[in-house]
User: What shape does this take?
Amino acid sequence: MAEQAQAADSGPRPIVPFLKLQPKPHLMGSKCGNCGLVLLDTSRVACSRCGATEGFKPLALSDKGKVYVFSVVHQSFPGIKTPYITAIVDLPEGVSVRSNIIGIDAEDAQKNPKQLFDLPVEMITNVVAKDREGHDVVAFAFKPSKK
Amino acid sequence: MQNVYVLGTGMIKFGRYPTKTVPELGGEAAILALKDAGVGIKDVEMFACGNLYQSNAMVGQRILQQIGQTGIPVVNVSNACATGSTAFREAFLAIASGMYEVTMAVGVEQMGKAGLLGGGGGAGGDPAYATEGRLGSGLMPAVFGQAGIEHMRKYGTKMEHFAKISVKSHQHATKNPFSQYRNEVTLDDVLNARMISYPNTLYMCCPTGDGAAAAILVSENKLKQLAGGRKRPRVAAAILTSDPWTDRTASLPDVSTLTRRASKQAYAAAGLGPKDIALTELHDCFATAELVHYENLGLCGDGEAGAFIDSGGGKHPGLGGHDPVNVSGGLLSKGHPLGATGVANICEVVWHLTQDERAKDRQVPNAKAGQAHVIGLGSACTIHVLTI
Ligand SMILES: [Zn+2]
Assistant: This one.
């Protein structure tokens, strides 16, 4: 038991609280019990849209979505490889998420931006860093869905 | 509400002042505005100071320590890029409410070479949890790049349209001695410049720099006493909005809805429409931002920004254009010292309405009304309409 707890403690950690790694990686939202708005947060004080304070329910979000808009980032912080594609991905639950897009050449995306609009994508996860306590830090990204 | 007028304005040339302090830069602009108004610091009853990078360090009081510690109430304002314009609005409200008759607004910033990328950070200070570049980009160039891409997606806007805005702003800046950059660029220069965040190339992004601007506001009663027969512009609208809930705003700040709401309120308060506005200073932190704001401010219809640009829209009438936008050179050329920007935009509008010497080489003819628009990402929007 103690060993198991220790094993879990040394396991990977999600980069943000709304990314859950178990049982398989997925994003977690909160759904407003009053107006039905889905927000990309695991806890809420009240609803951004209607102001309701009660009745939020956790909602596991789909790992598939569509690209709304994007940009190609050529200048970033040290350690971030450029160019890369940043995008807003619409999920079927009505919530949007900001993410890197992988599996598409960034220069090609600039030459032919239309290919990304409404492109079906699916979520993957990747280890992006090790934290100070030695845990792997896991981020998510989206890649074009298999046909 | 009582009427509020701008009695005097002052600004220092935007640029780099590494040997000066923030209170010195702000103090210089304040003194210029006081002299322009023909009053002294002892006449000022309330002071609103806008500054972002030292927002925890009592910049307003430190300016008074430079120019005169009269003991008046000081409000230090921080509201992202709308910091200076929000400070101006506080100084406006102080008079409009009937509480004061002479107030001062100063916007000041010293950015050094910090750049628009800003800080990184992560949970608990462990950089392993920093999301920038790993969960997309929340930095300004990417956010405003996507605002341009959204327009491209909806209306088929071309890269050249964004680039033409940069060419125009640089052309305007050659006539403005207060501008940080005063060089012309060609369409090819803009298109072939280093890409920062698609579709914005280097020349489609505002530079970083230092600067300060100030304004002295007065009631109608004080105007009669102090103006000495000079006609001074009235603040016909002083609007501030925050970001309302819209569908994707949590992941991509919606700068358009924010501006549209402010614009509607501003035109209603001033009793004017877009056709009555002789000049617009709008928040062109990126060329893509300027393009979407043409529509957001009603200078053209939805989806018409590309055609507006192609017909000379936004360009100074002296250069064959119409509906001039950012004749100062805009943030793209004049510069964008965050806290100073919103007050400097108002200075520019005032100078055209009063045919001030400081705008003589770029004077917009027959300017009876102008507007100054600012966005602070996160988000805040101010629009001030001035009339004479
Ligand atoms: Zn709700």
Remarks:
- The mean pLDDT of chain A is 93.
- Residues A 32, 34-35, 37, 47, 49-50, 52 surround zinc ion (CB under 6 Å).
- The interface with chain B takes residues 15-16, 37, 39-40, 48-49, 68-77, 79-80, 83-84, 86-88, 90, 94-100, 109-110, 113, 117, 128-132, 137, 139-141 of chain A (CB under 8 Å).
